[in-house]
Amino acid sequence: MENKQGKLITIVLAILLVLAIGYGFYLNSAHNELTEGLEAEKTEVKAELDQLIVQYDAKIAEGTTLNAKLVAAREDIVSYRDSLNSQEKTSYSTLRKYKNRVSSLQKKNKELFSQVEELTADNTKLNGEIVEAKATIESQDEANADLTSKNEVLLSKVSIGAVLSVGELQAVAMKKSSNGILSETSKYKKTDAFRVSFKINKNELTESGDKLAYLVIKDTEGNIVAPKGKVTFDGTELYYSDTTTIEYKNVETDVVLITDIDRKETQKGVYTISAILNGKPVGETTLELKGSFLGIF
User: Fold this and answer.
1) Which of 37, 94, 155, 256 is 20 to 30 A removed from 140 (C-alpha atoms)?
2) C-alpha gyration radius of the chain
3) Per DSSP, what are the bridge partners of residue 244?
4) Widest Cα–Cα separation across the chain
5) Domain final residue pick, 125, 145, 161
6) How many structural domains is the chain composed of?
7) In a domain, 165, yes or no
8) What is the pLDDT of residues 180-218, one digit of tens each?
9) Percentage, residues of the chain above pLDDT 90
10) 159 lies in a domain?
11) Residues with Cβ within 8 Å of residue 230, at least 6 apart in sequence
């Protein structure tokens, strides 16, 4: 009887041992399966974080005004990924926390990338408008340059057309009687003055107003007769014999100058008289003074 009970206890203990060993194997297998599952999820979370980093790198490379925010967000993701990698043992609760954080980062990523895309679209539109405006400006500049060139040509023509001209320059020698009356003469010994006259032609392109005229009288040797002063034209000094100011009103204007000279300084020969009006030579003529008949008259 005792032998039967001993055998029965042995059998029961053996069965319990087998069950304990089997349960141990089961628990170990379940633990390994859970660990593998957690590691797989950890790898998946890390892959999602790496993908986010790649996306941020691409957006940062576009160089928008949101780069500072993008860089900060990328650094946050890198830090979070490195924290996940440093976890030697990953529990379900820890992994859950990381997955929630990834979900939050993806949402933030979507909002930020949406802003970048909107900004990029605005920049593209603005760049298009800038290119169009630049093309318009260049076209306008070309038109303005062409107009300026035409205006310069027109102004040049107007300037040329505005130069005053005169009719024939006439000069006669005059003698003065005892009562001061002047009369014409051809004798050098009797010449007390030169009477020079000309007519300024009508010119509507010329600005009306005072015009300065100069007379230059030269004797047979080229000396200035009765010099009154000197003036500079185009860098050249010119001595003149007489000058007058003419009020010009864009109509034909008669001009007469009587230049007194000293008869003692005159001599026989051909005199040259030239006129300068408004800084430009406008006419020249000659006048011959003769000697007296038999040296008497």
Assistant:
1) 155
2) 57
3) 213
4) 202
5) 125
6) 2
7) no
8) 899 999 999 999 999 999 999 999 989 999 999 999 999
9) 39
10) no
11) 237, 238, 239, 240
In angstroms, the CA 164 to CA 278 distance is: 8
Q: pTM for the full model? A: 0.50
Name the one residue in this structure whose structure tokens are 């069965």. 15
Which amino acid does the sequence have at 21?
I
Domain span at 219: 170-295
9, 96: one domain? yes
Task: Out of 72, 103, 125, pick the residue that ends a domain.
Answer: 125
Distance CA 209, CA 66 (A): 68
Question: Do 108 and 12 have their domain in common?
Answer: yes
How many residues make up the chain in this entry? 297
